[in-house]
Amino acid sequence: MKKQLMLLGLLGMTYLSSYAQKINRKAVVERHTVSVASFDTLASLSVGNGRFAFTVDATGLQSFPKYYTNGVPLGTQSVWGWHSFPNKENVKFEETLKEYTLNGRKVTYSVQGAKNAKSKEAINYYRENPHRLQLGNLGFIFKKKDGSNAQITDIVVQNQQLNPYTGQITSHFTLEGQPVTVLTVCDPNQDIVSVNIQSALLKTGQIQVFLKFPFPSNQFLDSGTNYKNPDQHQSAIVSAQSQSAVVKHQLDADQYFVRLDWSKNATIASQQAHEFILTPKVGDGTWEFSANFSEKKPTTASHFPAINQRNISAWKSFWNSGGAIDFEGSTDVRAKELERRIVLSQYLTKIQCANEQPPQETGLTYNSWYGKPHLEMHWWHGIHFALWGRVDLLEKSLDWYTKVYPNAVGIAKRQGYDGARWQKMTNPAGEESPSSVGAFLIWQQPHFIYFAELVRRQKPTKATLQKYSKLVFATADFMASYPHWDEENKRYILGKGLIPAQERFNPEETFNPTYELVYWHWALKVAQDWRKAMGLKPNEKYDKILQNLSKLPVKDGVYLATESAQDSYTNPKFLTDHPSVLGALGMLPPTPMLDMPTMQRTFDKVWDVWQWHDTWGWDFPMVAMTAARLGRPEKAIDGLMMHIRTNTYLPNGHNFQDERLRLYLPGNGGLLATIAMMCNRDDLPAGKTSFPTNGQWKVKWEGFKKMP
């Protein structure tokens, strides 16, 4: 008997050891090292630190920026790099406002419909300014044997690799048979790109480096290759020594600096406006240099060996913290590709989205919507950090809401509401940008409560409550004052005067969208929980809304997109864009408002009739979340891996959308959030996942935090 007990004990230990075996994170990450074998304009690679990103072509620098203009551009962007053109016409923001009569009262919104010429000027100015800057192009000039400059067709790409585990890009190529190897890294703490070059071409003086400053395009997109208007900005070398130089770039009232440091003697000179050429002295075939982009003049030298070591250490720390997932051994043919998307999405969101501002949808690579963040997208950009056990990366951007809080209060007050109404399309100062869609969106409003609740769940302390409660309650105060009382039916209505997350509806006619109703109810309930945690009485107004909010609109046994759209599934227009009706379960947990059988039927209806070719990158994670909550793991995988253009993930890991949005980070963030919730959430039984149990999926995970 004693021997049997010992044997059982040993078997138990073996079982526990196998079950608790840690994932080999380095192996998982490095098996998705990116390899590029040509000048592929949709496969450019980036290094970065969350506040700064630098994107390169196959030479390891930005040697051919014009060639990449219509692909994933060779951007250099930072959170501090913004510019505004002078307001020469002295237009006022108030000139962007339009008055609407909604629910029996007058309300103003900042929209794009111009009333007159002056109004149009104001609308254009406040949409276009401020805009994020492309800080500069930093690339190689290669000299051929005959002394002429090499063109892109003269460079033969051997192989370029991005190792996400080390954050290093290694580029191998040849010019006229001579090999060149370039190692590119970014400092984890400063906006510095640093490079090691090895080539016999250095011995013959055939390699130079250029720094070129483009001019803001003032367009929806800015790929950083606008070299027009040289007389409208200024740049100059402000200091130069044998192994360093500082260049200043001035645009109207804005300025910044680039400090260059190099390992061996070189000269720097300007041959044409806004372009500076760094020429290393003929050497032994190895040369290193760094470029420090900064708002203020840098005074400290930056050298490759130290930066490279800090970079490697920082990435090792990142990958060995928080969550991880491993599909090794899975036989479903989609598993390897899904794991690739997961690994590269972690890398991309870390370098593009982890900073003190909500990110723009194209991160720190190139401008979309003039480089401005969209707050409704912050959920998709940010919650995965918390779910993957990296809540501090989410918190970096939450302090921004405190900074812009007065502007949010001002919007609510102008419109006759309480609390703070969070902006949609905004800028670093939290100022509104005119938008005929964005002005009417409301689904960004509860996001702050969701963010704060994720923090509280992981840091259930008095300090957390004290830090975020003011904004939680201000957010809820607006939410409690926004609904309109329907006296006839004795209920509160969301709208009229809104556009749902599915941006296909007329704001003046739309009311009671399903997803927003559920989100409103959930967030106000969480706000009451915060009051309880702080020892406060429940807010009577919150309770009044919770008890009397309109029921979810149903027709023919399925949830409608909005109560005002009884033709939600027969009008072709309403079968495009985001199927946000599904967000009522998936993005959000089961709530008393929602009936599960009705949502099952709704899911099937949407799956069958939706025009999936007219969707966005985060729609596929949203669908997968709903399927997971409904206990349909096969559909969750089918949703994540749907073969649709906007669900394309490029070789570099970016989520491609169309010719405008060649990368789209809400898709990457949404994928990561979905994977985490498929492994660990409140409504998932312990020891279970939402992956298929058909034997084709082997899933090992660790470190995920529970999603509500």
From TrEMBL:
InterPro entries in the cross-refs: 6-hairpin_glycosidase_sf, 6hp_glycosidase-like_sf
Region forming the signal peptide: 1-20
Alphabetized UniProt keyword annotations: Signal
Highest taxon above the source species: Bacteria
Protein name, entry field: Glycoside hydrolase family 65
